[in-house]
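Page 47, continued from p. 46.
Same chain as before, 230 aa.
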Amino acid sequence: MLTIKGLNQYYGGSHILRDVSFEVPLGACTAVLGRNGVGKTTLLKCLVGLTPLRSGTINFAGRDIAALPPYERARLGIGYVPQGREIFPRLTVEENLLMGLATQPRGAKIPPRIFDMFPVLKDMLQRRGGDLSGGQQQQLAIGRALAANPKLLILDEPTEGIQPSIIKDIERVIAGLAKSGEMAILLVEQYYDFARTLADHYVVMSRGEVVKSGRSADMERDNVKALLAI
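Result:
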């Protein structure tokens, strides 16, 4: 579904991404792991078009999208859940979810399955996003990204600042989406156990480059956890 080859990006004179290459297959969850500051969020911003590439290619569903603006990438089927959630705090839950339909035909409705995945949202449709707890906001951010039925769902640190009970709910939803075979999932995460539970494949980044990758079944053998230690 997604093939990344030779991605390079700089901030000033700092080389942030260094020839990053890997694939994200359909019907599976690929986890990108690494300590703070290794370029994970920059990588995702390059994939969704918020940060331009210096060099490299991004092939999504057979099409080179490296030169496309963010809204075109969203229209092609890329859903993005940014770090920190970034919901619209003054809009209601319903209005936030409707924003996820911006790339869909006029009159498109919020898919009912979002409320099956996150029942709490159905009872809060008229509450403002800024009045929700951190965990509820994260569920809303994921629901907003899923509203457009993406082919690729990108999540940046979905467990950050979230209580354990809601982490379990999010884990259940992501696992179900991956098993459905209808989309590819790219998960950036520092929480090793969460990533190991969900991932089919893993990629470890350090200082802007991929230093190890493989199957999630081999993460223990490959000593991935040690690569994440400070």
